[in-house]
Sequence to fold (860 residues):
Amino acid sequence: MSFEHVQSRWLFAAVSLGLAVAMLMLGPGIALLATEVAIMALFASSLGFLINYGGMVSFGHAAYFGLGAYGFALAAAKLGLPLWLAVVLGPLTAALGAVLFGALCVRLTHIYFAMLTLACSEIVFTVLFQAYDYTGGDNGLTNFMAPRFGLSPQIYAALTVAIVALCIAFLARIVRSPLGLAIQAVGEEPHRAAALGFSPRLVQLVACVIAGTLAGIAGTMYSVFQGNAFPDYAGVGITIDALVMVVIGGVKGFYGGVFGAIIYVLLKTFVSRAFTHWELVIGLILIAVVLIFPTGIAGLLQKLGLSRTARPSGEQHP
Amino acid sequence: MAAQLLNGLTEGMMLFLIASGLTLIFGITRIVNFAHGSLYMLGAFLAYHLMPMLGGSTVASFASAVLLSAILVGLLGLVFEVLILRRIYGADDLLQLIITLALVLILRDVVKAIWGANDISVPMPASLSGALQIGGTFLPLFQIVAFAVGLVVITLMVSIMRFTRAGVLLRAATDDRGMVALLGINQAWIFSSVFAVGCFLAGLAGALAAPFGNVNYLLDTNIIVMAFVVVVIGGLGSLSGALIAALSVGMVKGLGVIYFPRLSTVLIFLIMAAVLVIRSLGRGAISK
Amino acid sequence: MSREPILVARNVTKQYGGFVALGGVDLTLQPGERRALIGPNGAGKSTFIAVLGGQQAVGPGSTVHFAGRDISGALPQEIARLGIARTFQINRVFRRLSVLDNVRTALLPSNGRVFSVSERHLTALTSPAMTMVTGLGLGRVAHDAAETLSLGDRKRLEFGMVLATRPKVLLLDEPTAGMGLNERRSLMELMVEHAARDQITLLFVEHDIDIVFRFADRITVMSRGKIFAEGTPAEIGANSAVQDIYLGTEGAPS
Fold:
């Protein structure tokens, strides 16, 4: 293990800890905003991982966000389980969903993969919407707990930032591991990988479950944050949000999802205050990104020497 | 029962009009146009806007509003293709998708800015708002007319695809990607016109179907998802497949509402998933 | 030649719709031999390689035995793990990974580390991978992304990756296609040298007759989905019917 590598790990830990502590000193409004940014950063990163390393463009990533939210909310609101258990059940539900949907979806590639993920997430959305007796349908599940377990916005923001940092560190570890190489190999050249002895679908399934579970953690944290759950959490809209974040942030960079979430949520919040039509602005930015900077913000920073993408070989030169 | 049947058929026909444009565009340009639902929505809003200007709720003003809306949407598609899409053919799948997603966001905001965020409703032409008595049942006249318009569009499409040189070329290029090169120097022009015609069809469907229900800016994602379902079940790029799939989906929705109201939508997505999984069965489909 | 053959293909058929790509091909490879597979375009050479590698399913009635084991119908990854490796006609490497990581990746399946999340398991592969990279003459570009390499270097890399799987049989589909004359020969020399060192049986599809006659022990000639002739380079060189099919005056016996 090289010096440089250790250094970047300590740097990551220091920045995360610094951010978490900083949350405690913010005003409540900014803390709430920071929490949303952090949760969306995790959600977008999980999708970015699937796209960038796994080569799988999903149109249905919201399924796992929704399952994470409802797995928690149903356990807490309808089963009356203790909150700590419900918090564990949320991501677990998403993981199970990812095993099931992933096993089906990895049979397909490209646009057909995307379409099947869309069908899966729409099934989740519709079931949540229609199973009125259990999920409250369109009205969602509300008033079953105090938002953020009653914690102050600042403390919950610090907690969220810490958890998100741990999850992202876990993703970075995966990327730098043998499994990470396998996922990239299969993502890029499935035939070559199979002819070397990799089982492409199994490797892809593992990638889907990792991404789905992390998306589920984001969903659970969001449900706790809001103290509710709505079918829209599993809707196409959330998937589109995450896709947009990944592209603005940079598809090819490890931190693309994080950068994208920061920009997207801030734009949404501040542009919509000054000028109602923030979606128009995002749309124009997207066109500019695709036509002018297809590598997104991460690529731009990399070009300026401000950031490096997480690449497997630890002893590699920058 | 007959009324529900007609309901399903009409809904299926409207779905076909949208899906046909989507599948036509995909077949030739390999672009998955996420903005197709937005163009449908725009068609509906344009019809709402144009009808009063063209003389209120007469058949003639409705017909001209529908046609004009479709043409405007088609022109918008043309401009979008020429200015933006043309630059990224052959680029990464994801970038192509994102460009059309950008159009979704832009159109949604434009619609909100012009027509607001509330539901609007487009009136049926007064003389078509009645019902036709066939046997013992009353069938809404407007549905029959909308269905008939769909049939006319299909007939036109089939004639173009079968009997014109352009149509033969298009079919060949859809079936065999190698043929696209044979489109030769006209390729750029053909891509533009196919994209414009596809958008025209989306606008036409949106305007024609507007009187059936409330119109609002959320229509875009609902419609695009259903259009994807139809296109996938019918087979990407296949017009005849899209027709069969659209009518079937329309019937499942129409009849499902009576027999299994809570399951009908889930059922449609289950069918879509099943179709995709069944197609993937058999070996050699690991990838690419 | 009294040893057990390592690969035996019997009556291999393959149809695409109505088109017969392979019309009953028989082929037997002895351990350690270097067999060239030649024939005009469309003879079915690449399809046959794809059948052996598991990329294409065999038709009914076909059997392929590897080291006494029936592998007809096995998946590509199963065949690869048993010890049949291949390169592709269109060079396939992991373009975004570094040269070193391409080889480390290739080492994972045989080391049973595909699903490991431990970075140590990856670092442990660095030195064998580096040895391989240097041995291929790619030491100076070890840390460059594979997509920045020249075609010749990418072909060396792909060869190194398949070597890393420790194969017993190596299928090379047009290994020297698209390269200059000198480069072809040096690449082929590298491959043959490594194969001899590791006692690997070679089956290679090749159009360059000079290369074929220089490097093959035996030559199999295919035409229209069938075996047309088989023999030593001297026998094939003397066979005028073989020259005819290349000149297009073929009257292929059925």
User: Anything to note?
Assistant: Residues 7-92+167-247 of chain C form a domain with the Rossmann fold fold (CATH 3.40.50.300). The two ends of chain C are 28 Å apart (CA to CA).
